[in-house]
Write a structure and sequence with these properties.
Elements (H helix, E strand, L loop, with lengths): L2 H5 L1 E7 L10 H12 L5 E6 L6 H9 L5 E6 L6 H14 L5 E3 L9 H15 L8 E6 L7 H15 L5 E6 L6 H7 L4 E5 L6 H14 L3 E6 L6 H15 L1
Parallel strand pairs: 1-2, 1-3, 3-4, 5-6, 5-7, 7-8
Length: about 250
């Protein structure tokens, strides 16, 4: 990444957002602040597809900066409806005065599986589980309207399976089979549940812990991978790759 490209590039982090509870969006502002502290960009803003500040407000802010181009980073887990249709359409309609490029979302970043594995192993250790005799469930939203969410979750599970650190690795979902509740109820052995979620919305913060409690499973939960403090470094690396390519 050259100094010139850094000085002329603005970065907008965009997430789905949660209008019901603003505290659930704090993780995004933490990532924005971490990237601002890196001093690698002329401007860093965050925007939500649902909630405030909106994506359009974030684009307006960077449009008034000294930037010559804008990179939009979707802090989302797949290239599904919200990224390919909602986000792309709203970026186009925002009429930003600068060239805008949308990067590949967080959930498809090849740097994410090692981070997820490290987080899952740490959760196993903290609960006194031996990973070689522990099941790892990678839980994602899933969707009734398209395959993108399930495919991204299954891809993550396959990457973690290849590491051969857990006795088995399986995907599970909240909105399509195999459902997390059923997966927890079907196997009473020690289980780490890895949250393949971008933020701390009602699914990540509420539904997963509730399923563990209701089934009485011997399970521990990592929380949402997208809120991990190392995510800003991963985003920075993804942006660096994009600037080299362009």
């Amino acid at each position: 990444m050259t100094e010139t490209s850094v000085d002329s590039t603005a970065l907008v982090l965009v997430a789905h957002g949660d209008r019901g509870d603003d505290t659930r969006n704090r993780w995004l502002w933490s990532h924005v602040e971490a990237l601002e502290c890196s001093t690698r960009f002329c401007r860093v803003e965050g925007g939500l597809l649902k909630g405030t500040p909106t994506l359009e407000e974030a684009l307006a802010e960077v449009g008034r900066s000294k930037a010559r181009r804008v990179l939009v980073y979707p802090v989302c887990m797949s290239n599904g409806y919200f990224v390919n249709t909602v986000l792309a359409g709203r970026v186009s309609a925002a009429d930003c005065p600068l060239p805008v490029s949308i990067l590949s979302p967080l959930g498809l970043d090849p740097r994410l599986p090692p981070l997820c594995l490290e987080q899952s192993l740490a959760a196993a250790r903290a609960s006194g589980y031996a990973s070689e005799t522990t099941r790892l469930l990678v839980v994602g939203h899933g969707s009734k309207f398209g395959p993108a969410s399930a495919l991204a979750t299954e891809r993550m599970a396959e990457e973690l399976r290849r590491a051969r650190r857990f006795c088995k690795v399986e995907p599970a979902f909240l909105e399509e089979p195999p459902f997390l509740y059923d997966a927890l109820a079907s196997d009473r052995g020690p289980t780490v549940v890895a949250g393949f979620f971008s933020g701390e919305g009602m699914h990540a913060r509420g539904d997963v812990p509730a399923a563990i409690e209701e089934t009485g499973a011997d399970a521990t939960y990592t929380g949402a991978i997208g809120v991990d403090r190392r995510i800003p470094g991963l985003i920075e690396a993804a942006v660096a790759d994009e600037l080299v390519r362009s």
